[in-house]
Amino acid sequence: MDAIVYIASARTMEQFWQQREELRTLVFQMEAFANVPFLILCIRNPGIDLSEEEMVNHLGLNNVQLANANVRPLEVFVVDKFNREHYLEGIKWLYDHLTNH
């Protein structure tokens, strides 16, 4: 596997908590994915009015430390449901990482 793209989209806070647990497993506990670039796209939904910082906090990603180059690259992009440009920024980050490393 060359990369992981995780799409987080929730209409309720309960769904956010479920995705938080999934992400915890993928980011911190799955050795098979330890060196794989990880792109997380957080889709803003009208039902939950959270800022980018709040979304990252609720998903438990605010304390992810990438202290050295040997740690998997991980990037979070908060995207609007109908704004294609935000998605493209995330895909460009992943493409750049895969082609330059």
Please outline the helices and strands.
Layout: E1 4-9, H1 13-29, E2 38-44, H2 52-58, E3 74-80, H3 84-100
Parallel strand pairs: 1-2, 2-3
Q: Structural class given helices, strands, pairing?
A: alpha/beta
Radius of gyration: 14 Å
What order do the SSEs take from the amino end to the carboxyl end, as H and E?
Answer: EHEHEH
How many H/I helical runs?
A: 3
- Counting DSSP E segments of at least 2 residues, the number of strands comes to 3
Average predicted confidence as pLDDT: 80
Residue stretches low in confidence (pLDDT < 50, at least 5 long) are: 65-69
> Could you give the distance between the termini?
15 Å
Helix content: 40-55%
Question: What amount of the residues lies in strands?
Answer: 15-25%
GO molecular function, one term: GTP binding
Main location: endoplasmic reticulum
Family: Belongs to the small GTPase superfamily. SAR1 family.
Pfam families: Arf
Structural notes for this entry:
Helix content is 41%, strand content 20%. It is an alpha/beta fold and 101 residues long. The chain has a three-stranded parallel β-sheet with strand order 1-2-3, sandwiched between helices. Helix 1 (13-29) links the parallel strand 1 and strand 2 (38-44). The longest helix is centred in the first third of the chain and has 17 residues, at 13-29. Mean pLDDT is 80; it is low at 65-69.
